[in-house]
Design a protein that fits this description.
With 152 residues, the protein is mainly α. 70% of the residues lie in helices and 0% in strands. Helix 1 runs antiparallel to helix 3 and helix 3 crosses helix 4. The longest helix has 34 residues.
């Protein structure tokens, strides 16, 4: 069975990037929870001294690391299950911004993951653009139900 253009487009712009980004964040969340519960990482790529100091500061703010990993897990599951991919990307976008800046400023060795985050995030945003459209409209949204008159 040959792939038609709409199916190929769907795979390249929606399904593939959604699964890749969801997988990256699922692995990161599982590794983060492994650190919380065991004190050891399963995956720890080479990181600069400044990057390790930044990561240690995030972990020392006791509440922040579990909160961030919980949001990563929720966002990853929303992307992987295709239940609410626009919400999943919206949850992951601030974390992605920090990761991108982290690698651009503190750990340039991680720039390949930055490319993956930017490309997959942009493709998912494009595929879900109709769901974000209301965020970019000016003014108040129109009421979808008629106003109920006040009773006297």
């Amino acid at each position: 069975m040959a792939l038609s253009m709409p199916n190929l487009k769907s795979i390249l712009i929606d399904i593939g990037p959604r699964l890749l980004l969801g997988g990256v964040f699922l692995i990161g969340a599982v590794d983060g929870f492994a650190f919380i519960f065991t004190g050891a990482h399963f995956i720890h790529p080479p990181t600069s001294v400044e990057g390790l100091a930044f990561e240690a500061a995030l972990k020392e703010a006791v509440f922040f690391w579990p909160l961030m990993k919980s949001i990563e897990l929720l966002g990853a599951l929303l992307l992987l299950t295709n239940r609410a991919p626009a919400l999943g990307l919206a949850l992951l976008a601030p974390i992605m911004a920090v990761i991108i800046l982290f690698h651009a400023v503190l750990n340039p060795g991680g720039l390949p993951i930055v490319v993956i985050l930017i490309v997959t995030g942009s493709l998912i945003f494009w595929a879900q653009r109709t769901r974000y459209a209301a965020l970019f409209e000016a003014g108040m949204p129109a009421a979808k139900t008629p106003a109920i008159p006040a009773t006297t």
